[in-house]
């Protein structure tokens, strides 16, 4: 089983690595497309650079903060919308506006209103909030009314209703929302940093890699972003699934 997993991960890496090497050999221009070896060498050099880890920690902290705030506010707004039609009537236009506004417009407006170092936090929050809100609200609305009637008949308290009736259903919709939002958080957060150029961030490093035509470093940073995004997604999804299984197990017992 473990061997099959290794093969499943190795085959696509070898395939796309081969395509990359083949195209690189045809183009034969390191400024346009550096070789996998050049990018790997650049990544190793970055890993041993203290500035690299300072950039990563600053960007990671802000993106995670924006993500957590977006998830928290999205869930709170969804609960309030489920409880109050008036609140839903008020908040839905705002959610629709955030969804429809182009990312470039949001970034430019935020640069007018806030400092560059806080841009990625607010930007990620605005990207995450609508998706979490919509999926959480959908989960709440999909709760079986018969289960609620049964809970009322057996005088189940609010805490147990939330834990054993609402949470399992909400988790079904929250899991894909979190997975999508986390990947998009890195895309939007780093894009904002590239434009705003806050000091000692991944976005600033990407910008100067482009300015000084350091394409291997540009690719190395990009690969690192992809890697850390995938790792974070797997960790958070596993945590949510574990929580969901725990709730489901307790509800059966």
UniProtKB/TrEMBL annotation:
<feature type="transmembrane region" description="Helical">
    <location>
        <begin position="89"/>
        <end position="113"/>
    </location>
</feature>
<dbReference type="GO" id="GO:0005886">
    <property type="term" value="C:plasma membrane"/>
</dbReference>
<keyword id="KW-0812">Transmembrane</keyword>
<feature type="transmembrane region" description="Helical">
    <location>
        <begin position="60"/>
        <end position="80"/>
    </location>
</feature>
<feature type="transmembrane region" description="Helical">
    <location>
        <begin position="119"/>
        <end position="137"/>
    </location>
</feature>
<feature type="transmembrane region" description="Helical">
    <location>
        <begin position="6"/>
        <end position="24"/>
    </location>
</feature>
<keyword id="KW-1003">Cell membrane</keyword>
<feature type="domain" description="ABC transmembrane type-1">
    <location>
        <begin position="56"/>
        <end position="236"/>
    </location>
</feature>
<comment type="similarity">
    <text>Belongs to the binding-protein-dependent transport system permease family.</text>
</comment>
<dbReference type="InterPro" id="IPR000515">
    <property type="entry name" value="MetI-like"/>
</dbReference>
<dbReference type="Pfam" id="PF00528">
    <property type="entry name" value="BPD_transp_1"/>
</dbReference>
<keyword id="KW-1133">Transmembrane helix</keyword>
<dbReference type="InterPro" id="IPR035906">
    <property type="entry name" value="MetI-like_sf"/>
</dbReference>
<keyword id="KW-0472">Membrane</keyword>
<feature type="transmembrane region" description="Helical">
    <location>
        <begin position="164"/>
        <end position="186"/>
    </location>
</feature>
<protein>
    <submittedName>
        <fullName>NitT/TauT family transport system permease protein</fullName>
    </submittedName>
</protein>
<feature type="transmembrane region" description="Helical">
    <location>
        <begin position="218"/>
        <end position="237"/>
    </location>
</feature>
<dbReference type="GO" id="GO:0055085">
    <property type="term" value="P:transmembrane transport"/>
</dbReference>
<keyword id="KW-0813">Transport</keyword>
